[in-house]
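Render MYO5B protein in 3D.
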Amino acid sequence: FLRLLEAQLQDQRREHEEEIETLKSQVEAMKEEMERQHQAFLQTLQLSPEVQVEFGLQQEITRLTNENLDLKELLEKLEKNEKKLKKQLKIYMKKIQDFEASQVMVQTERRQYELNRRVAVQRKEKDFQGMLEYYKEDEPLLVRNLIT
């Protein structure tokens, strides 16, 4: 049990150290990016106001273009997902139709069975006394026939 705990502790320590390294590399990358942006900002300040405006516009155009590309990619994914869901819907609709058709067939067969059973009962014309056996779902039909 102690060895298992030690192994788990070592695994957690290793994962923690890997996570720390990943975070350190991310911090370094961010520092480099910040330094690059700082240098670009300093250079921009040295430019004339017209050039600063043009530079700002170019950066905004680049940002919007990248955002547009991301949105197009998202749209393509959503369209693909929509097609997939439509196919699934068609499959399920077909299954429902098949199920409903089978239910209609079962009801038709049951009615035919009931009609055959009634015909058989009518032919016997015996004087019965005693108990009657029937299915619970046939009760409304039985009551209706008794009343008739």
